[in-house]
Every structure is written in structure tokens, then in C-alpha cells.
TrEMBL record:
Region (Disordered): 103-122
Protein name: Clp protease N-terminal domain-containing protein
GO BP: proteolysis
Record's keyword terms, sorted: Hydrolase, Protease, Repeat
Biased composition (Basic and acidic residues): 103-114
A GO MF label: peptidase activity
Clp R domain span: 2-184
Amino acid sequence: MFERFTKAARAVVKGAAEHAERGGATSVTQEHLLLALLDGEGTRATEALRALCPPDRRPSLVATLTDARRRAGLSRADEEALADLGIDVGAIVARVEETHGEGALAGDREDSGRRSGRRPFSREAKGILEKSLRVALARKDREIGDEHILLALTTTGGVVAEALADHGVTYASVEAAVAGVPAP
């Protein structure tokens, strides 16, 4: 499948792995794919992101992801479902962090004694890459570009798609923005 990835899409995959390593994550996640997309320049996806979520709004997007990580990756829908059962996620996070320190529920972090090396892609991140292929095929595109990765991220549900939607980045808005950006 990777032979069908454009240079820009390969850069996203590589950048995601670098984000995971810098952050001490044990695996590459959907969030790392998004962070790598936000780092890019001059591609169809990065131009679409710039139009939909300008640089001055990106700190808010990253803060949303960070907050979700503190809640062990629970989306608002997850949190609301638990609230319906009488479970206050905010109170649980506060108690855990009071005992174990801020970010204790973030999970997926290396022990300080572990050696660094290549990070495997999480099941969800692999799913995004597979979905990017399906998006490209559905759009009758010959190659998988970084725009297909961004489109796939908007369709999966969960924290990343929720954070993107909260910042105006949906499948429809990305599709429209990408249509106005010429291929590199």
C-alpha cells in the first residue's frame, strides 16, 4: 500500500512516528498523524487545513487533543455516556492526577528505562492509513495523498475527528477545500 503514497503522505507517516518518539509514546496514534499534518507545508492537506483551521486557531486544536489525552482518550460522547451512568469523568481524572500526578491517565508513554526505537502504529492509526486508501479509491485518485489521510481522520469518530470537527474541519469542508487546491 505504501508504494501508492505520495511524497507528502509518506512525510506525514514519518512525521507521525517522529511525534510519537518525541512524546515518548509507545505507538504512533491518530493524534500523531494529525500533528504531522499540522507540521506540513505546501501540500493539498496542509493548504486545506490552513484555510479551515488557520495557524492562530491551532493552539486550541492541540489543547483539545491534550485535554482528551488527560481523560485517557475519551471523547465527549464517551464522557456523556459515562455521565448517563452516573460516572463523573472529570472527578475521576482529578482524583487520579491528585494521587499520581498530572497526565497520569494519558497512558501510552514509555518507562524511562526503555530504549527508543521504531514505534509501531496503533490499530486505530493503521485503520486511518487503510481508510485513506479507500478514500482515494472512492475519489478515483491514483495515489494516496496527505489529503486522503486528513479526510480519513475526519471520518473515524473519536477524539481526533471530534477535535477537528470542533474546529471546522469536517469531511465535507476538507473535500471542498482540497478541491480548490491544485495538486503539487
